[in-house]
Amino acid sequence: MSEKIITTEKLFKRYPVGDGEFTALNDINLTFDKGEFSGIIGPSGSGKTTLLNILGSLDSPTEGRATVLGHPISSLSHKEAAQLRNKHIGFIFQVYNLLPVYTVFENVEFALLLQNRSASERKKEVMQALEWVGLENMANKKPSKLSGGEGQRVAIARAMVKRPDLVLADEPTANLDAKNAHAILQTMKKLNEELNTTFIFATHDEKVMGYLNRLIHLEDGKVAKDEIVTAKTV
Amino acid sequence: MIKFIFKAILRDKNRSLLPVIVVAIGVFLTIALSGYISGMLGDIVEQTARFQTGHVKVISKAYAENIDQLPNDLALLGIAKLHEELNADYPDYTWVNRIKFGGIIDVPGENDVSKGQGPAMGIAIEIFSKNSGEVKRLNLVNSLLSGKIPVKSGEVLLGYEFADKLHVKVGDELTFMGNTMNGSIAFAVFTVSGTIRFGNTAMDKGTILIDFTDAQQILDMEDGTGEILGFYKDEIFLQDHALKTAKSFNAKYANTTDEFAPIMKTLGEQNSMGRYLNIIDSITNMFVFIFIIIMSIVLWNTGLIGGLRRYQEFGIRLALGEEKGHIYKTMIYEAVLIGVIGSVIGTILGIIVTILMQTYGINISGMLKNATMMVPTVLKSKFTPQLLYIGFIPGVAAMVIGNMLAGIGIYKRETATLFKELEV
Q1: Which of A17, A102, A104, B291 makes an SS bond possible with A22, Cβ 3.0 to 4.6 Å?
Q2: Are residues B375 and B397 in the same domain?
């Protein structure tokens, strides 16, 4: 039996707008198993990023429950939420969001610094992560010297270096050309298969959808369709 | 983590350079201006001490009551014994005699017609005594414009403007007419040995300077003096110590009814100098206070701009699992590091400028041609140990306070709101 790592029940997220309110998520009921390679898909404004933020403990629901890795998101303190992200969740963004003053090595190392890991351990883990993404020779380069594809691969290494249970990727290929997008997706798929890490994407990119095993269609904050699909193999 | 922060500060010039420059300029201005104000006001105090009050002064009680009239008829007598007592009991000071007196100077011309005449303020100091240090203390050698320092009895120095007014030059004779301490007419002929710039307009225009023994003889003041001035041996005035000295000395003569008994006054107790010293302290403190307020506002804004510029970085760090409190703490660490670097630079620059200003000063004699006030003609800064921290501590504090205020804005936002604003 597969292990459920995320459950949402009657999840609502509303934002005040003027005198009324805007419902970004409307009665979301989902479960995600460990090792899934799934995507929340839909047009802009459909609620993808809001759902991803709640699952990543960056936001909390207005109503309903979201349980991530056994932690009820609504009742987590700031500190507990930070610890959950620190230890168990990796983020990959549309823009790579690397810290420009640090080298590739230091950007990846930062996640481990927050876990108070020893210098030797950090070095070993960072080099391993860079090897996964094929950038072990670029450890000392600054982000400004990297191409778009290389920058996103560093971001993947940063998300994966702490070997999280869950990776949340928000439009990770939006700024990449087709060749780089496929390379990135293949890297992530490979890590998913080798490390059994759960990947959840928020996307409307057809290229990404081709690699996913499950597509959750969001429309106006509601789940319109939840389908299992046959994905490309790496 | 500190190492990691330090790397970022060194590498990101935008993050470090502007705040460092702002702090350094603020600290520099505080030190340079405080040093200048202390120097300017301190110069007036020191000048007054050197020429008028000493660091402490011993006079007779009766003389003290009428001090504005320079009443030499109420002068101290038996001063040899008094000097023995002062040297034995208060060895931290150099004790010197001074007599101030007034009179008329007449410069004889040809055919028994006066070449020049005018009222003179006389100061008698121990020029011939090598131990008194008076020539050095009053900076007579460097202030000499022509001629030489008197080396024998009967020689006189004149303020250079006074000499111009009287039309006398070095080697000319002049006649002094005044009163002895007993009220008889005093009459003496002097030879001008040199002209001098006292650095004080009032004195330059009407002062003559003679040796103390000459004055004793002319004014009939054998074993007597108008005033005994005490100067700290390192020439630095210590107000609290001087007060203790005066208190202990005066206690010895507290019970006597003799109006000619000596009494000791500190610099702060004469010529309203106490109020003046308090003003110096107040102005310096005010400066530091204004600095902290202004710098905090400036650095708060700098911190805000820096914070806004780094919103994205904070967002990434939040996403990576760093706590908001930790981000806030690292901002403060950065502020301390930048504050220390800026304050060190500002302090070094401020002290260099203060020492240069202390050595060379600004000559304002051209602006004081018609002045009759006792103001120094060269304005100088003064280096004091206080300058080492007077800008440094507020520099670091302002940077930290500025960043704390700026950081609160970030800290108080909900993670999700902040994350949205970050557009990560």
Answers
A1: A17
A2: yes
Diameter over CA atoms, chain B: 105
Total number of domains in chain B: 2
- If you ran DSSP here, which 8-state letter would residue A2 be given? P
Residues 34-73 of B with CB under 8 A from A: none
Contact A33, A4 (CB under 8 A): yes
Burial class (CB in 10 A: 0-12, 13-18, 19+), A207: middle
* Amino acid in position B216: Q
pLDDT in tens, B108-147: 888 778 888 899 999 999 999 888 889 988 888 888 899 9
What is the distance in angstroms between the Cα of A233 and the nearest Cα belonging to chain B? 29
- Chain A residue numbers with beta carbons less than 8 Å from the beta carbon of B424 are 93, 95, 97
Contact B323 A79 (CB under 8 A): yes
CATH H superfamily, domain A4-228: P-loop containing nucleotide triphosphate hydrolases (3.40.50.300)
Q: Quote the mean pLDDT of chain B.
A: 85
Reply yes or no on whether the pLDDT at A29 is more than 50. yes
Tokens of A195: 């490390």
Neighbours of B13 (CB within 10 A): 11
Mutate to test the interface with A, among B2, B311, B320, B334 (most CBs of A within 10 A): B320
Nearest to B316 among A78, A99, A113 (CB): A99
Give strand pairing partners of B224. B77
CA distance B408 to B304: 10
